Amino acid sequence: MRPATPSRTVAINEVSGIIFSKVDILHGPTAFAHKTYATLAKLIQKDYINPPSGVPFDRSTLSKDEKGEANQAQIVDELLGGLRNGFFIESGAADGLYHSNTLFLETQRNWTGILIEPNPSQFQVLQKAKRNCHSLQGCLSVHNYAEEVTFLNAGHVGGIKGVNVPRSISQQRTWSNYRRISFESRVQCFPLYSILLALGNPRVDLLSLDVEGAELEILQTIPWDKVDIGVILVEVDPWSKHAIHNILALHGYVFIRSIRGQDRLFQKRRPGVSHQKLFTMFDEA
């Protein structure tokens, strides 16, 4: 696992020439007034992103095929016509195994990408799983700058303190159970765009966002004219779903379908693709 504590070595911003410490760049908006995305990307690449395992995933560790909690991976696979060698970003990756939205794509379609998970215990399991993709212990920032936040380590319903809101009675019960023990930790967050730059800004065939309440804020940080994201799978709340639909429609995405009520699937408009057919490809879930 990469070290989580940055040194105080100074970094010179390529655009302004102003000198900032790494702590400045990682912990607040000051440096980002001077457009330090490129500098931050270099720090992420050097100190935070873990490389792929380099070996095929050992499927014998699974008790069954994993296609997502509600077959999300299979639905994406059908939408993309069995696309091979794709690239994913899965934020809220948990342990990388249970209910993974990308494991099927990696093992059956030879995809790679990056798994992002802030929960320390979940990330340890993810690392031991030896997925053949990059990984990062941290979270996506709800601002367009890097910051350190308090994270609520409430199992699969954990999230950023002050942003995370339980979505159901069962989640409230889970939170109540975790509150009986110490479950808060400080976690480093990065803007999605800075992580993409650290990876060389590849085309992203699938962006999966399951971050327990921060989805809208994360989408609002994306400079859409500088990225290429084909399909977005995002979990929504009753109070955020209309805003999420609006922001994605504004940036050229077509709503494909709902999955189990909370997840929404969108696809970028492409020349020559009949998106009207995509609306009727699946039954509403």
Automatic annotation (TrEMBL):
Query: Methyltransferase FkbM domain: which residues?
Result: 92-254
One biological process term in Gene Ontology: endoplasmic reticulum to Golgi vesicle-mediated transport
Gene Ontology cellular-component annotations: endoplasmic reticulum membrane; Golgi apparatus; late endosome membrane; plasma membrane
**Record-linked Gene3D superfamilies:** Vaccinia Virus protein VP39
Write down what this protein is called: Methyltransferase FkbM domain-containing protein
